[in-house]
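pasting for ref
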Amino acid sequence: MLTKYLVASLLGTALLALPAGAAETNKSEKAASTTRQWQASKFIHKNVYNNNNEKIGDIKELMTDNSGKIQNVVIGVGGFLGMGEHDVAVKFGELKWVDAPVRNTTASNTAGTKASTTGSASNTSANARDRNYPDHAVLNSTKDQLKAMPEFKYSK
């Protein structure tokens, strides 16, 4: 008779714990579904800048492993209108993805102050939230350093 009560007690405890475990699973699934996802096709032709906001190239291709995870980004460096361009591959993790447009500053013709060529901050942040891709990438490198890297060759 004691075992009957013991089994019933254990079964009741297990049933009470089940909804709590399911709730934890739902929380983690919900967190994963709210993680921001970007459209990979929108990365192609995105500009790549260095830390001084100087354009150093643009993205030509995303290279994945056999599971689909992006491993390398092929960046076109130098050249003019596609002529003389040098493609190099950098690790995806070396790039910093930025939602806001590059803030170019130029000296004003009439005053000694700098004028920004971008729109207001509120418009910029609103536009960035509406997009499902970054505005540009930043790489801690110079154009000359990229040009000195070995040229990336696509395998056949």
